[in-house]
Amino acid sequence: MNNRSEPKGGTLRGQPDLHHQLLHRNREWSRRMKKENPGLFTELAKHQHPFFLWIGCSDSRVPPNQITGTMPGDMFIHRNIANLVVHTDQNLMSVLDYGVNVLGIDHVIVCGHYNCGGVKAAMGPEFDGPAADWVRRIRDVARWHHRELQALPDEQARFDRLVEINVSEQVYDLSRTSIIRDAWEAGRPVHVHGWVYSLTNGLITDLEVTRTRYEEAVGMLTTR
Ligand SMILES: [Zn+2]
To answer: Which domain holds residue 14?
Structure first.
């Protein structure tokens, strides 16, 4: 199976009129879904009741539904470069507010991935453009954990660990938002999870930094 498309689709590389291919595959997919899940579209057209809110990287190799075997309607999704939680990001905060307060989602997952280009960029020299400003937050994360990172044997080990630490820091930042704090205050069983995905074997590792109440979130600060 190639890694550029749906399992049944074949490669998109080198094909003319790529966008037509997408529309063609969409029709095939719709046909298959109707056959395999009669009534699914009728049900989904009425409402959505997703169980999970996914905050992941924009990287094309980490498609949330495919890697978790979930269906349309299962997951509310926000993606950005290096899966960052920024309190001034109206986009993410709107998704979080709607997901937690309107859709009633109790499981919020921050999923990073090894070999993340955004994290790698933050480990390298300064550069220009909007992405430079965006990944600056990861430079801060690296600075806070400088001692731990420097103790590691090589650059790849530091890269892998920074990907993990970055996820933990986003879980922490998420748990400090008023949206999550208010949900906990109201007695909601909201879980904030930190996961990392491996591009080399397709497996997700739970970093076991799950937060379920405010005290735990504050506790994370002392481990810094
Ligand atoms: Zn990435």
So the answer is: 1-47
